[in-house]
Design a protein that fits this description.
By secondary structure, this protein is an alpha/beta fold. It folds into two domains: 201 residues, no CATH class; 30 residues, no CATH class. The chain has six helices and twelve strands. It has a five-stranded mixed beta sheet with strand order 1-2-3-7-9, with helices on both faces.
């Protein structure tokens, strides 16, 4: 009987994996864009890996239109989400458990800049857009380009001033398609390797335990602890987070 349980256990593990959640999130965004956006005005390109000076960057979705290029980062998450535009890390809280994750606006910034350079466009022609799905609830006020579910369609449709001609759109699509790396296991493996290296380097960075901003080395100027060094939040005095050095 145990042999019959093995496939079920494997299936459950796959469904709960971050890989499957990412695939599901991207699938939902794909479906919504095809159903709710006019395919004559909006062209969807998905799962794009581009070369960068320090390795590669992987973009979930790019939507090309005469109203601009929308660079979309998808997050399939649940629980309460806390964060502001300028924080390096945001917080996900599920019941009593809290965990930090990279501010997706920062993550998408590299995608936007890579495309800006590749396509020789300006910032007014490219829009960064974050899409959360999966039952997440924002507990802090978010910028208008951080959306939940189908709200990202509303953000896209809110842009009504043409910034690209039909000829420009075709050039952009061709440039992206011709510059993207082949969709293969090897491409994905190399990108994951690059990401792990970047993450490993960033683990040495000290972040504020209160707001997630970077920390700077400071020294107590007076009192019993005069001369003692500590990590202080860069956002002081707005945030007074500290980490004592032992």
């Amino acid at each position: 009987m145990l042999y019959y349980l093995i496939p079920i256990i494997i299936l459950i593990a796959i469904l709960k994996s971050s890989w499957f959640k990412g695939i599901l999130g991207e699938f939902i965004v794909n479906i919504l864009s095809k159903v709710m956006l006019d395919q004559h005005d909006y062209h969807l390109i998905k799962n794009i890996t581009l070369s960068t000076p320090d390795g590669t960057t992987q973009i979930d979705h790019i939507i090309v239109s005469k109203y601009g290029i929308f660079v979309i980062e998808t997050k399939n998450m649940k629980g309460w989400i806390f964060g502001t535009a300028n924080q390096k890390t945001w917080t996900q809280k599920i019941f009593k458990h809290s965990s930090k994750f990279q501010n997706p606006l920062y993550q998408n910034y590299k995608h936007v800049k890579t495309l800006t350079t590749l396509l020789s466009l300006n910032d007014s022609q490219i829009h960064s857009l974050i899409v959360f799905i999966g039952g997440a609830t924002f507990k802090t006020e978010m910028p208008e380009n951080v959306t939940y579910g189908g709200d990202y369609i509303r953000f896209i449709k809110s842009k009504r001033s043409p910034v690209l001609s039909t000829t420009d759109m075709n050039k952009v699509i061709h440039k992206i398609e011709s510059s993207r790396l082949a969709r293969s296991f090897r491409t994905n493996r190399e990108h994951i390797k690059h990401v792990k290296k970047v993450v490993a380097e960033k683990t040495n960075d000290t972040c504020c335990p209160k707001c997630g901003s970077s920390m700077v080395m400071r020294e107590t100027k007076k009192g019993d602890n005069q001369g003692k060094k500590f990590w202080g939040c860069r956002s002081f005095p707005r945030c007074r987070g500290i980490i004592n050095i032992t």
